[in-house]
Specification:
Largest sheet of chain B: 2 strands, antiparallel
Largest sheet of chain A: 2 strands, antiparallel
Shape of chain B: globular
Number of strands of chain B: 4
Strand order of the largest sheet of chain B: 1-4
Number of helices of chain B: 27
Distance between the termini of chain B: 74 Å
Largest interface: A-B, 70 and 82 residues
Strand content of chain A: under 5%
Helix content of chain A: 40-55%
Oligomer: heterodimer
Structural class of chain B: mainly alpha
CATH superfamily of the largest domain in chain B: Cytochrome c oxidase-like, subunit I domain
CATH class of the largest domain in chain B: Mainly Alpha
Distance between the termini of chain A: 84 Å
Structural class of chain A: mainly alpha
Number of helices of chain A: 9
Number of strands of chain A: 4
Number of domains of chain A: 2
CATH architecture of the largest domain in chain B: Up-down Bundle
Radius of gyration of chain A: 39 Å
Mean pLDDT of chain A: 78
Low-confidence stretches of chain A: 16-38, 303-310
Low-confidence stretches of chain B: none
Helix content of chain B: 55-70%
Mean pLDDT of chain B: 94
């Protein structure tokens, strides 16, 4: 009976923790489907435990009522036959059912007034020790954690079907794929280097400028004059001008030349905005410009990009 | 009692350790405050000696081994003598112990800022110091057991059980963790590599917390708390059960520092379940402490000593409940690598160790100086500054940890990271860092008041160097008294106690470590993983020297957000040539496991010289000295030879070509840099090329060939 109850508790705990681990993948991957599937199991177990407890309480109540009636009958009989029953001691009187339960499972400290009775006969530098029982709730907690530990090892290693770290990861990625597919479906195709267009509205350019100052200015100068990276204010481009080329360069980077890929850090829309802002820098003539690099890019030559441009910049390699 | 003997307790050694504890407490916490401020004001990183990476181990070592270490010895030397009714066995050994320990601390205070480190957390000190620590620790043990043997009490009190377990376990941990092969006088490579070293490290690191910060302090609690409260210990049986359970279970819990790492799942699970089972044994100590105060709670309101002790024991209870919670994998997935861990350890260190030390000091000082405490008011102010300081320190960091973890894990509906730029998640928690520094300052101010108070107490009293005592000689009693509790048997036999403690603490370590070291399938090999080139190796040693591991992990956990942000999750086979392993335990900066090839060489060049030039707002220290310091390749042949001895498959005679090989690769890096517009003549002769070569190698081996050879 006892061990079955413990088993239920472990199962409940194990289930809670697996549920928890999924919930912990925070906000984005929390899957309502999974929670719904787990719910009946948990509910069944809660109901089972509640039912069992109710049964136990009811049984105890019946026994108590029985005892009470029995005592009552005995004392009535005694009165009739004129026998005086021994008076119950104060301690026995306080020894009610709940006191017993409390002492057995919860707390059983000897009161301070009576601790002389349990003071051990040894002392160390004046320090005495009492012989109080182990706090029962503490012992029970210890036992429960041990049972939980065995249950955990069983579930994940000794026979249960608990997922390995790797399996958890695969599940997480699979679920994310589904969610992304659901989120993206029905929306317009994402912006990429094949369909990107230059924006001209002031709001977008303003946002583009903010991004520029935050992430690009470090290498390309506050005003696009070029420092580590090339100058954006002249007509020369190393990897092609125009919004599509600029977008591509931002997105994938040119690692061998020092330009990193930004696609993990900037959303396509942000790359579009900052690319559009960069286009507006042409001809601004900031102080301390870096020498031109690459080749002259003319917008009208865009269709003809297969033809190499003739004019080599003075500073290009 | 005819056979009364007269003797004297040695108070001088207790005072010496007490002063050392307080002095190093001030120093260690000051360094802590400095590094807390460095996170807010990166310009406080005065390189190369005073950068965060080098000062952080100084802070942890100073607080653990200097402040708490001296606190332990103060408590042990005071209580041991009185509990055994005997003077310390040898005054000479006592003083060798004292000065030896202070010399170690002084060496650490110089060597760590110099960048001389092995990089294992709390085991950073270089091999000559490791040997010195072992020697001094043995001297401490000899002195302690000498005293135990010539004791005048038949039985050992629970405090001494804890001291014995502490002594033997720290000895075992320290020696095994220090298995290393010296290369030069200041450098060594560890015997174990990669995942095995990680396991040994956290078996050590976790149990440094257990057997250096916990068990000796529990022993001290069992002495000073009932003394100060003048109450009997609540339950003798509880002492017995929680002592044996604690030392047996604690040793298994180390792998909870490596959850979701490439350590095999079964070891991780053992770490989790033993951490959970540890709640009750840990709380046994807290209960026995708090319940001992039954009937003395009215005095707790008035007596600062008891106040400190109550908060200490409560902090212990909180930290030992939180620890197991953090060991549950799904909680750890959020808490690990964040400031949550930092908050957690400071509740333990400031609350439990700090406050118990202060309580003991405030109790001891007036007694040894035969006077009253100079000012109870000041002690009360110290108490409140400290308590509020801990709260103001910890709460913002819990908040910071949660916030940052959630930001790391947040995705947009389209499936990209919501906070793709790691730096944004750091900027977000800067206000919490500032609040933490305020909390730390409060705690620090408190300890300064404490110093003043104790100095004043000392001035108004007269020190009693040798305290007279008398006790009957020990009657050797072999047969147990009828009706005596069974445990009394071992309490009269210190050597059996030592033996059983050793056996119990050995089991957990053996079960976890031995299979990991000797069963090859535990670490599946990956065919494309190759040893580091000589230049990369040199760069790696620079990475170790600068303490980069303090802020950058090299362990991508199998979570979608981490593989999205950093790349393929880490496999144990990738680390087999990593000596030392550099997984890290905190991400103040991003993970660097797959840093190789992510950025061009020139990016690293500029970023090292001034991190904000490449990522504006970065709080990373600048490392301009990397282009100022010449590349020193003179130890390379010795390094290659040492690593080959340890099992790295460098070809025969490779050490002869190592230097030229490194120089060739250095020229390549320099050429790359020049090609990318970096104008720096002679850069190939500086340390910069080595660190770039190392960073560019990181995590690239498995990309060479996608098929892993299982």
């Amino acid at each position: 009976m006892k061990s079955k109850k413990y088993l239920l508790v472990i199962l409940l705990l194990a289930d809670t923790f697996t549920g928890w681990s999924q919930a912990s993948q925070v906000a984005t991957t929390a899957s309502p489907v999974d929670a719904a599937q787990q719910l009946p199991d948990i509910m069944t177990m809660i109901l089972a435990i509640a039912g069992a407890s109710l049964f136990v309480v009811a049984m105890i109540y019946i026994i108590k009522v029985n005892q009470f009636l029995y005592k009552r009958v005995v004392s009535l009989e005694a009165q009739k036959s004129g026998v005086t029953l021994q008076a119950e001691t104060a301690e026995a009187a306080s020894n009610t059912f709940w006191t017993k339960i409390r002492k057995k499972y919860w707390e059983d400290a000897v009161p301070i007034e009576r601790e002389g009775e349990i003071t051990l006969d040894h002392g160390y530098d004046g320090i005495r020790e009492l012989d109080n029982r182990l706090p029962p709730w503490w012992v029970n907690m210890f036992i429960l954690t041990i049972i939980w530990a065995v249950g955990y090892m069983y579930y994940y290693h000794w026979g249960g079907d608990g997922p390995s770290s790797e399996e958890e990861y695969k599940t997480e990625v699979e679920e994310a794929k589904k969610e992304i597919a659901a989120a993206v479906s029905g929306k317009a195709a994402a912006i990429d280097e094949t369909n990107v267009t230059a924006l001209t509205d002031a709001t977008s350019l303003g946002e583009g400028e903010l991004i520029y100052k935050n992430v690009c200015a470090a290498c390309h100068g506050q005003q696009g004059e070029g420092t580590v990276g090339p100058n954006f204010t002249d007509e020369y481009w190393i990897h092609g001008g125009g919004i599509k080329n600029i977008f591509k360069t931002i997105k994938y980077g040119v690692p061998e030349k020092g330009m990193i890929s930004w696609q993990a850090q900037l959303k396509p829309a942000d790359m579009q905005k900052v690319g559009s802002y960069i286009l507006t820098l042409k001809g601004t003539n900031p102080p301390n410009p870096k020498a031109p690099q690459g080749t002259i890019w003319k917008e009208d030559a865009q269709q003809d990009s297969a033809t190499p441009q003739e004019t080599e910049a003075p500073g290009s390699k | 009692m005819s056979n009364i003997q007269q003797f004297q307790y040695d108070n001088k050694i207790v005072r010496a350790f007490g002063i050392a504890s307080f002095v190093f407490g001030v120093v260690g916490m000051l360094v802590g405050l400095i590094i807390a401020l460095q996170l807010i004001y990166p310009s406080l990183n005065l390189g190369p000696w005073m950068t965060f990476g080098r000062l952080r181990p100084l802070h942890t070592n100073a607080v653990i081994f200097a402040f708490v270490g001296n606190g332990i010895f103060m408590g042990v030397y005071y209580s041991l003598q009185r509990l055994l009714k005997a003077r310390m066995w040898s005054d000479t050994l006592s003083w060798i112990h004292f000065w030896g320990w202070q010399i170690i601390i002084a060496c650490a205070a110089v060597s760590l800022p110099m960048g001389l480190t092995t990089s294992g957390e709390y085991a950073e000190l270089i091999w000559p110091l490791d040997i010195l620590i072992a020697l001094i620790w043995v001297i401490f043990g000899v002195n302690m057991f000498g005293t135990i043997i010539k004791r005048r009490e038949n039985h050992l009190y629970v405090a001494i059980w804890f001291y014995i377990a502490t002594w033997v376990t720290v000895a075992v941990l320290h020696i095994v963790r220090s298995f290393e092969l010296p290369v030069t006088f200041t450098q060594s490579y560890p015997l174990f590599s990669g995942v095995q070293e990680a396991l040994v490290q956290w078996w050590y690191g976790h149990n440094a917390v257990a057997f250096f910060l916990t068990t000796p302090y529990l022993g001290m609690m069992y002495y000073f708390l009932p003394k100060a409260a003048n109450r009997p210990v609540y339950s003798y049986k509880l002492s017995i059960i929680h002592f044996w359970a604690l030392i047996f279970i604690y040793i298994w819990a180390g792998p909870h520092h490596l959850l979701y790492s490439s350590l095999p799942d079964w070891v991780q699970s053992l770490g989790t379940v033993f951490s959970i089972m540890l709640i009750a044994p840990s709380w046994g100590g807290m209960l026995n402490g708090l319940l001992t105060l039954r009937g003395a709670w009215d005095r707790v309101r008035q007596d600062p000593v008891l106040k400190f002790m109550v908060v200490a024991v409560t902090a212990y209870g909180m930290a030992t409940f939180e620890g197991p919670m953090l060991s549950i994998k799904s909680v750890n997935a959020i808490s690990h690598f964040t400031d949550w861990t930092i908050a957690h350890v400071h509740v333990g260190a400031l609350g439990w160790n700090g406050f118990l030390t202060f309580g003991a000091l405030y109790w001891l000082w007036p007694r040894m100086y035969r006077t009253q405490l100079y000012s109870t008011n000041l002690a009360n102010i110290h108490f409140w500054l400290g308590t509020l300081g801990i709260i103001v320190y910890a709460v913002p960091l819990y908040w910071a940890g949660w916030t940052q973890a959630l930001m790391w894990k947040e995705f947009t509906p389209e499936g990209t990271l919501a906070w793709g730029n790691f730096l944004d998640t750091v900027t977000q928690i800067m206000p919490m860092y500032a609040m933490r520094a305020i909390g730390g300052t409060m705690f620090f101010t408190g300890i300064l008041l404490g110093v003043y108070n104790l100095v004043k107490t000392a001035q108004q009293g007269t020190f009693l160097a040798n305290e007279d005592a008398e006790a009957p000689a020990r009657e050797r009693r072999v047969a147990p008294v009828a009706g005596e509790y069974w445990h009394r048997w071992i309490e009269g036999r210190p050597m059996q106690m030592l033996l059983w403690s050793t056996i119990l603490i050995a089991i957990g370590g053996i079960v976890q470590i031995v299979p990991m070291v000797f069963i090859e399938s535990q670490v599946p090999k990956i065919s494309t993983v190759q040893p580091y080139t000589p230049l990369e190796l040199t760069g790696r040693d620079i990475y170790v020297r600068e303490g980069c591991v303090g802020c950058h992990s090299q362990m991508i956990r199998p979570f979608r957000d981490e593989t999205e942000r950093y790349g393929e999750y880490s496999k144990s086979g990738e680390y087999i040539y990593d000596r030392p392993f550099l997984w890290g335990s905190k991400r103040t900066g991003p993970d660097l496991m797959r840093e190789g090839g992510k950025y061009p060489d020139s990016w690293h060049y500029n970023h090292m010289i001034d991190p904000t030039s490449m990522s504006p707002g970065s709080i990373m220290p600048a490392y301009p000295h990397l282009v100022e310091q010449p590349l020193d390749l003179s130890d390379l042949p010795a390094k290659i030879t040492a690593l080959r001895k340890l099992g790295t498959p460098y070809p025969r005679d490779f050490e002869k070509y190592a230097v030229s090989n490194a120089e060739e690769q250095a020229r390549k890096v320099a050429k790359n840099l020049a090609g990318q517009g970096v104008k720096d003549e002679g850069v190939e002769k500086t340390e910069m090329v080595a660190i770039i070569a190392y960073l560019q190698r990181l995590g690239t081996d498995i990309k060479a060939q996608p098929t892993a050879n299982q």
